[in-house]
Specification:
The complex is a heterodimer. Chain A is built from no helices and 11 strands. By secondary structure, chain A is mostly beta strands. The termini of chain A are far apart. In chain B, about 0% of the residues lie in helices and about 55% in strands. Chain B has no helices and 11 strands. In chain B, strands 2, 4, 5, 6, 9, 10 and 11 form a 7-stranded mixed β-sheet that branches. Chain B has a 4-stranded antiparallel β-sheet with strand order 1-3-8-7, with no helix packed on it. In chain B, β5 and β6 form a beta hairpin. The chains are: A mainly beta, B mainly beta.
Chain lengths: ~110, ~110
Amino acid sequence: KQEVTQIPAALSVPEGENLVLNCSFTDSAIYNLQWFRQDPGKGLTSLLLIQSSQREQTSGRLNASLDKSSGRSTLYIAASQPGDSATYLCAVDDTGNQFYFGTGTSLTVIP
Amino acid sequence: DTEVTQTPKHLVMGMTNKKSLKCEQHMGHRAMYWYKQKAKKPPELMFVYSYEKLSINESVPSRFSPECPNSSLLNLHLHALQPEDSALYLCASSPPGTGLEAFFGQGTRLTVV
């Protein structure tokens, strides 16, 4: 069973900074890795999906990379804004229909 | 339409009550999921339905009973719950076995009193 870990657990940065969130997983045989955002008490919003054959994906100020061999993914957020404050979760799918979530990173962007 | 709709948004129930959570999607996804999320913890997988058949049950107590009546609907029937079952219950859907994107609903906040 996949073990998915995210570092750091919490991060506080001033507005405008670029930042990197990390996700590591134990089994490299995956279908995909997906990054989500969760606001307090709300559901999950999909940010980026990287399929196993891909190395990175970009959407606006977000860039996610995947290195299956080392069991790592990073989410890069450029020019952070207070509206980016949320919990960021990575999820690994290793069977095609079973997602394992990381422990999450709680991000606070200070105006 | 990339929406997964969950009802109700909030539910308070007593330990002797019977209630149901509902989830609906119209994206043609044939895999649907229930997750449980406690405060400040990641979502934990409960059940997976693939092509309307239960494919994964993560050792969930029998007081939780899932049902997938058709390819668009997923229910979670609740009976004789305990206060520790209070949590955010999330539904998700995806095309099974493809590695394509999963979509989540906004969740049902359940409180057991």
